[in-house]
Amino acid sequence: MKSFQIGYLGIGPSRISGGFHLRYPISSPIHISKIQATLIGQEAITFIFHDDLENRKNTFYSQTQCIYNSSSSDFTPITSLDLNFDFNLDDDLPPSYSSSQVNNTPLSQDIIKYKIKITIFRKCNIFKLQGKNKIVSTICQIDRYSLPSIIKSQIIGGGLLMYRTESNKVKPNSKLDLVQSEALLPSEYIDMNSIIIIPLTLDLPDLNMKIEKICVVIKEYQTFKETVKEKEIVYFNESQKILDYTLLGDDIDIIKSYNQYLIELKLDIPAFDCTNKRFQAFEGVRIMKYFNVRHALKIKIMFENEGQLVLQRDIWLQRSLSEKKILKGRENGYIY
């Protein structure tokens, strides 16, 4: 079985469902009292810290169900069993997540992972060196989804204002601090595989100031950290570009009125399976002990001989479904 997940976690009821099949020869049956299935969710990392191999692990989810009980009070000889398990998922569970870094820490790539563990309570056999429990397990991929931004967010007042960051590079005696800027996002929710338009307004203190280029970047930031004795220790801190868009000054369509410029930035947001198959939607998940993911959109406006102006806003990238799938999902009860 390639996937155990049924439904769209994050926007509708979702569950993990599958089967466990057991086969033993008739001449050598296994003696069982019961069998349990457990779905376990962990955030974990393995890394080098001060020349030592370190591990951090936290089980944030565990659900167990009994899928077989012996009909007698003793162990029952079994040669063939076909069993089913079914776990309802909490709406705020995070998705499975693997680091995109290959040649850097962490040493283990699966930072958030789920597994299905089957525990067989069997008769102990010291001659065969068999303990009383036999455990088998498999990794279980869990994906998370979002509703399209047009459904989730209706922004009043024309958009969300981006703000200037501390990363603005200003040369001595630069006029950059006198530049008045305004960039409006249509929503804090941005759908993968969509097109968004960001109106950018610039009031320049000098008509001779010239835009060299404008860069727009959407990044995903990943951190794995803990607080020990009021001190924050960061074990993993990386970022990945989702979108990198550059517009040269000569190619910018500008509507000019006196020293005011109006520029429309049209961004083609890639589909999640075109960027990195590790991409997941994290909006609405429970707070984790160690791991955190956030997304940010930055606009870098670079002026000739004056430095650069940087605007930023935290956003939620959406792994959303098409309207057709949403309508069909709601008809079938898969989406709230």
Task: Furnish the topology, listing elements before pairings.
Blueprint (H helix, E strand, L loop, with lengths): L4 E2 L8 E9 L6 E20 L2 E18 L6 E3 L1 E9 L8 E2 L11 E13 L10 E8 L8 H4 L7 E2 L1 E2 L4 E2 L9 E6 L3 E3 L2 E10 L7 E18 L2 E18 L5 E4 L2 E10 L2 H4 L15 E13 L3 E12 L4 H9 L5
Parallel strand pairs: 14-21
Antiparallel strand pairs: 1-2, 2-6, 3-4, 3-5, 3-8, 7-8, 8-9, 10-13, 11-21, 12-21, 13-15, 15-19, 16-17, 16-20, 18-19, 20-21
Organism: Rhizophagus clarus
InterPro entries: Arrestin-like_C
Protein name: Arrestin-like N-terminal domain-containing protein
Characterization of this structure:
The protein is mainly β. It folds into two domains: 5-140, Immunoglobulin-like (Sandwich); 150-319, Immunoglobulin-like (Sandwich). Helix content is 5%, strand content 55%. It has helices at 149-152, 272-275, 323-331; strands at residues 5-6, 15-23, 30-49, 52-69, 76-78, 80-88, 97-98, 110-122, 133-140, 160-161, 163-164, 169-170, 180-185, 189-191, 194-203, 211-228, 231-248, 254-257, 260-269, 291-303, 307-318. The strands form four sheets. Strands 11, 12, 14, 16, 17, 20 and 21 form a seven-stranded mixed sheet that branches. A hairpin with a 3-residue loop joins strand 20 and strand 21. The chain is elongated and about 90 Å long. The model has no long low-confidence stretch (mean pLDDT 84). It comes from Rhizophagus clarus. This is Arrestin-like N-terminal domain-containing protein. InterPro entries: Arrestin-like_C.
